[in-house]
Amino acid sequence: MKKIMVVDNEPDIVELTKTLLELAGYEVISAYSGEECLEKLNSEKVDLILLDIMMPGMSGWDVFNRIKQNKIDAKVVFMSVLEISENRKKTLMEEGLADYIIKPFSRETLINTVDSILKE
Predict the structure, then answer these.
(1) What pLDDT digit, counting tens, does each position of 72-85 carry?
(2) In angstroms, rounded to a whole number, what is the distance separating the alpha carbons of residues 46 and 29?
(3) Backbone phi, then psi, for 78, in 5-degree steps?
(4) pLDDT tens-digit readout, 6-19
(5) Is the bond preceding residue 104 a cis peptide, omega within 30 degrees?
(6) Residue 119 per-residue DSSP state
(7) Residue 111 domain boundaries
(8) What distance in Å separates the CA atoms of residue 37 and residue 60, rounded to the nearest whole number?
(9) For the domain that residue 41 is a member of, what is the CATH number?
(10) Mind spelling out the 3-state secondary structure of 31-81?
(11) pTM attached to this predicted model
């Protein structure tokens, strides 16, 4: 079973995302801050990290850069209310980002994105 970490400072978003992913057959770990995400990655091997960008303290950008620096073998998808240009998305994907999901997202968008990334 593939393991996914959901990282967002808003508990409602974490719980909703976790429920949708578990119903789709994934194992899900929750983290409510960038710091908690990195701490859990020390002891947990995950296949995918769904990462909010705008969080207090350590932002999703900071966490993404730490994941790359530490060569953590997990794909990362940003989740954000901020839309980005196709050029910016392309640059991020060249830097190792797996995808970018705009919040609020539908169940179909979430599951289709996760399924396609984890089946690669």
Answers:
(1) 999 999 999 988 89
(2) 9
(3) -80, 140
(4) 999 999 999 999 99
(5) yes
(6) T
(7) 3-118
(8) 10
(9) 3.40.50.2300
(10) ECCHHHHHHHHCCCCCCEEEEECCCCCCCHHHHHHHHHHCCCCCEEEEEEC
(11) 0.96
